[in-house]
Amino acid sequence: xxxxxxxxxxxxxxxxxxxxxxxxxxxxxxxxxxxxxxxxxxxxxxxxxxxxxxxxxxxxxxxxxxxxxxxxxxxxxxxxxxxxxxxxxxxxxxxxxxxxxxxxxxxxxxxxxxxxxxxxxxxxxxxxxxxxxxxxxxxxxxxxxxxxxxxxxxxxxxxxxxxxxxxxxxxxxxxxxxxxxxxxxxxxxxxxxxxxxxxxxxxxxxxxxxxxxxxxxxxxxxxxxxxxxxxxxxxxxxxxxxxxxxxxxxxxxxxxxxxxxxxxxxxxxxxxxxxxxxxxxxxxxxxxxxxxxxxxxxxxxxxxxxxxxxxxxxxxxxxxxxxxxxxxxxxxxxxxxxxxxxxxxxxxxxxxxxxxxxxxxxxxxxxxxxxxxxxxxxxxxxxxxxxxxxxxxx
Length: 394
Hints:
single chain, mainly alpha
């Protein structure tokens, strides 16, 4: 029997569109602490609060995003939210006060969250059913590589702009416009949206209750990533004296992700979701231990590769778990539930990272990340993995 084609044109466009959306957003993430500090004189705890505001918005809007994506034409929802996402970058450029910047940053989380949920669901829709689990892994690669390459490119873009952050914001805005153009070319099959089951408003229409254990578990791992990805640049500059090489941290992280995805996709293709995810979790634990235990330059650049290897297994693994626990009519809800969990963890990490670094220093904040990794690892093997194996639908 001939295998169905994985890389069809619509799936390729979805991957490219997703990469561009995430790239435009993460391009500015690691430099925002420096921007807020240098431009507005914000303290570490204030920076943590401001940067976590957008996450609170994503957490609030994501359950509704899943409902919208499952109840209305997905491409329409995608394009409307992608346009608003693009337009709100102008607010970063116009904001002249810390308060105004915080408002635009917070509001920006709403269209970003819904755009990502829409893209994830559209990508699953255009994948052949026999290649779906494998496809999720490759789609996730576009997501994670963008998350890694965005900060890497930001460091060099800021240097090229002679430290002008507003040029960086404009660059992000233009990339998000390209994403909108690419996403507008994706062809999605028409489907029925107003079924009898969708008329019943229940909690499961907004959050995948069946995946609650996995959601709590994912928050633990996202918490760690929120701390390290947000404060790694300022930590490298202030405590290790690394000023020009910080961008390479994210490039090395991206390399780890790519190696992991290319090797791990075969495991997901064979439906070894739990085993694939477990490998990533153990790898991440080792990476965070190295980063926290050794305040050395070699550890600073070795750890991201190991963490990238782990995340390359973990992220698509958890996404596959959510999708496989959900009915076909709940794909949007499953994706929004995962996004809500991930962003909640990242937001908590950003907030707590700011507070911890203010009072105990960045290094101790990274030890907290390692401790939370241990909690997440224990929870996965004792709770999440057994629950998934008992309740998976596919």
